[in-house]
Specification:
With 209 residues, the protein is an alpha+beta fold. Helix content is 23%, strand content 16%.
Amino acid sequence: MAQLNDWLEDAMRDERQTSLFDEAREPVNDPEAFQYPDSFSTPLDELRELSRQPISKCTLCGGRSKVYAYKMGSYARVLCWLAYMDTKKSNLPSYVSKSESLRRYHHVPSSGAINGGGDYAKLRYWGLIERMSKDPLQDKRSSGMWRLTELGRRFVYGQATVSAVCYYRHPEGGVLGFETEQIGIEEALGKNFSYRSLMAGYTQNKTKS
């Protein structure tokens, strides 16, 4: 077996170094198991400071990374659209139960609930949506099919709140922590979007209150 370069040996021994084969920590979909800052090892003050720092370069492998502070924002309207679609059974067989219809995936990119951006996918960092597994035979980055989690359903119906800010390390370093401030669905949507209209299926970019 060929001898490893010195820098690679150092990287493999360094506890701070993550592997390309390590799984990124994703939020848990079970609302009872979904944990907030207490379950993360990095203090909030440190996360806030890291999010203000520019992109950094690893001294061991040369890879670049950045900690981002993602705010829960108006892209939460996708949750309203998913909730609305879950109530529609007109195109489903009569034997499909309500509980089964609530577990369906929907194609978000063609929904009209977004304006071409992919910010809505960040909702998975809060454990609010989950993505259908990609078909390995299709040459696409993602299936585009998403569904609400139980926590996502409770949040969109005003039965739960989530953290206003999520700290996430790229590339795909996983969720590092959350701010303690909580936010509800209507506050997340902001003034430019009507919660009632969105829950009724309205998908234009802006709706009047």
